[in-house]
Amino acid sequence: MIDAKSLLDQFLGGPAQTRGMQGQTNFGDLAKRGLDSLGGGKGLAVGGLLGLIAGNKSARKMAGNVAMYGGAAALGLLAWRAYRNYQDGQTPATAPAAQPRDMAQVDPRYLPASAPARNGQPFELALIQAMVAAAKADGHLDAQEQQRLFGEIERMGLTAETKAAVFDLLSQSISVDAVAASAGSPEQGAELYLASRIAIDPDHPAEKAHLAALVQKLKLPADLVAHLDRQVEAALSQARAA
Fold this sequence. Notes:
58% of the residues lie in helices and 0% in strands. The chain has 13 helices and no strands. The protein has helices at residues 4-12, 27-36, 44-47, 49-53, 59-65, 72-87, 123-135, 143-154, 160-171, 176-181, 186-198, 205-218, 222-241. Helix 1 packs parallel to helix 7, helix 6 (72-87) crosses helix 13 and helix 8 (143-154) runs antiparallel to helix 9 (160-171). The protein is globular.
């Protein structure tokens, strides 16, 4: 069976999970390492499967979007920070950005491993599907491009099981309805949008339409969406300044 947690980290290009006492994942250390590396891109852009999938997009998107990935826990941290700012009535444009020290306060409901998706599959897999659907929204992943990606993925040294899972995901037609249907809670809905948003730089009409449709299907309040966007933009700003 595929390790959905490990596969999500492979997609995000984040650090390998570290273990604390009693074999539990050290989410605080994982998130800190991920957010501390926002500007360095050391292994992130080249190692992240999502970065490879988006590899034929502009250098600006690669330097921005892929450089922010810091693993599954960091993704949960960004979603939690956005939701808390929204609940506190903050103005999105000036709301505080996620910081590594915030991890100690994160509600466990925002950690991808905390609960399965609505359909019973690991929520990490639902997040991966959301990212792939978003990355394919502009139609650039045609049959020829997919074959190129398959060849590059073959050379990445992944296990046979992981490669098969990635190939299957890339071959699927993942609808907005399917992405939205995997949300089993408001927190998961916010994370699905965030995962989709970090997968693309929505300057293409099809990408904008994809995100707008997802917002509608997930029934996300406009102010919450603004806060989620703010966290992505703040992370990208940190990356550029580093």
